[in-house]
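Regression check, magnesium ion case 689:
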Amino acid sequence: MSGLSQPMAFLAPGVSEVAPAAPSVSRTYAQFSERRSAPADSASNTAWAVSTSAIAAGAVAALRRQSTRRAQRQRLPAPLRVATLEKPDVVEREDIRNIAIIAHVDHGKTTLTNALMKQCGMEKVKSMDSDQLEQERGITILAKNAAVNYKGIKINIVDTPGHADFGGEVERILNMADGCLLLVDAAEGPMPQTKFVLRQALKLGKRIIVCINKVDKPASRPDWVLDTTFDLFGCLGADDEACDFPVVYASGFRGVASVDGPDDLKEDLTPLLDTILEETPKPKVDNDAPLQMLVSNLDYDDYVGRICIGRLVSGELTVGQEIGIMYGEDGELRKGSVTKLWHFENNDRVKIDKVKAGDICAFAGLTEVTIGDTVVDLNDARPLPPIQVEEPTVAMEFSVNKSPFAAQLKESTKVTAVQIKARLEKECLTNLALRFEPGSTSESFKVKGRGTLQLGILMENMRREGFEFMVSAPEVLLREDPETGKKLEPYEDVAVDVPTEYQGVIMEEMQKKGGVMKGMETGAVENSLILSFEIPTRCTIGMPGKFMQRTSGTAVMASQFSHWGEFDGTTIKLRDKGSITTGATGKATFYSILNFQQRGKFFVEPAEEVYAGQVIGLHNKDTDLAVNITKEKAVSNVRAASSSFTVALPPKIQMSIDDWLGHMDTDEVLEVTPGPLRLAKKKEIKGLK
Ligand SMILES: Nc1nc2c(ncn2[C@@H]2O[C@H](COP(=O)(O)OP(=O)(O)OP(=O)(O)O)[C@@H](O)[C@H]2O)c(=O)[nH]1
Ligand SMILES: [Mg+2]
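Current build output:
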């Protein structure tokens, strides 16, 4: 890493060479609030259903108290602060900070991480979104480690995904960090995933720095965003200290930041880096404790096998060291050794001989290891509590492809139940939010996850690896209330950002599906609104696509699991239009498609192979329609000018896996191959239940 100085020695309590506290760079919410004369705007709070007046009443006084306390804290000489640690052998590492970047989807985590790496000396920035699907979709799917060197201090950064379906990644990654950088879009403000990740961070007692990001946006409204973020802290029950969070304004895109306000941006990100150094707690290390490292992430390399990634809580790791591995207190103690050891520099793994407690590292050498295992000392094994992540809410059945067109492609190399099972096992190893169990037949598996996007990404990856399989429509998982015995179902917090002209459309769709409106506020862009709802998860399946269609692609929907609520037993229709199916196998003909143009829209084009039972179109009515799409025009000897030669067919509807998952009904099954994706009626496919 360019310019990283020699790691400083650990500092014992009371050691006097710790420099006296430098003047503080960072600014907190209290300081900003005091500088601004007007109190929080009460109209801004409806989205979180918090009464601003309730918070505002005591806020000013509380903020003054916090501000005084903070000033006192900063005046404490540094050695005294070190000496207040719980045990004499617990010391703080001055040369490292560990921080996780958390936010709602698209609030700029990855862009900011890339900018930090660039400004800290990375010559050629390789984006943190390195996976092929991440690049294609422009979203982060897997949490990833990076590290930068600033002022001789190594800052380990964990970039996390913002999408709700990958929330499991955030939950497990937070234990590597001592502090969190909560990014909030300067125009949008806190969104459902902001609430989710903040709740997780507060639950784990992490120090949170708020970064109002994207202040370069013309529609940015940083004051409003700051107040709304403060309200969110209050709404989530954060204590006084957490509510007095440090604030930084930034534009990751332009690589600039400021602690003084959005209009006073410096020419680089140093204000942000200084705040991170100042406000992120230094890693505490118990010099007396034996080796402990919780495996928080797993990677795989064809040459070295499984790679464990985590933060070394205590002890040291060296190449060749014999280590133990245990899953929780009751786990069996297994043996292994470290064959390769790395630490992070920018977003690369760099070989190293020894890692000391407090740092984040990666090592190879263990074959049987899972996320949640603790690496322990063989002679003094003290496992840490395994990572807990929230339960899955959505399930789909994956089965062997039983369609008449199964295994016809040369790319389809993995088609058996054994191969599918092995792949699902591998996925569950690295993805804690995913589970699977035997399905309804001996050749099927019930795969459970956090949402259709997460399951769709798994399907897309499998398909690219040469798998062929069938999946049922997504269904939500119910559970029983242990006290009342009543059935419970998952509910979501949904926020829809929409131009005012389409407000009625969103409200109508939500009402149809049983959504309860929770709030409405002005959106970031002129003439736009952010509407908030609470709605059962099962009713949200396919909703983003529907909104896109009905609002000409302008509505953006974000949702996040909120709680388990009572299941009322009502069946909600997923789709208001039926399917057009074909009753015959063969090639779809121009003549037939043209003939049925008035009846609906088609997913197939002339000359495309179809099979009996395949869904080939979307009916205009709410009932299904069976047709013969393979019928040729009867040949006659009479020559006539036919209209069919002069008309052009509209192009077929192109559907991605995500589109199909949002579209398919419970009596349908999706055939996933490395080539085409086909929907069929379940009852028409032999061997499916
Ligand atoms: N105007 C502006 N746009 C930005 C800024 N930072 C990021 N963006 C844009 O916002 C979009 C999302 O940025 P990402 O960095 O991928 O966001 P993310 O939070 O990592 O997204 P996920 O990982 O998918 O949750 C991209 O189109 C960026 O170009 C910024 O500071 N200003
Ligand atoms: Mg990202």
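Comparison notes: The first strand starts at residue 27 and ends at 28. Residues 52-75 form the longest helix (24 residues). No diff flagged against the previous build.
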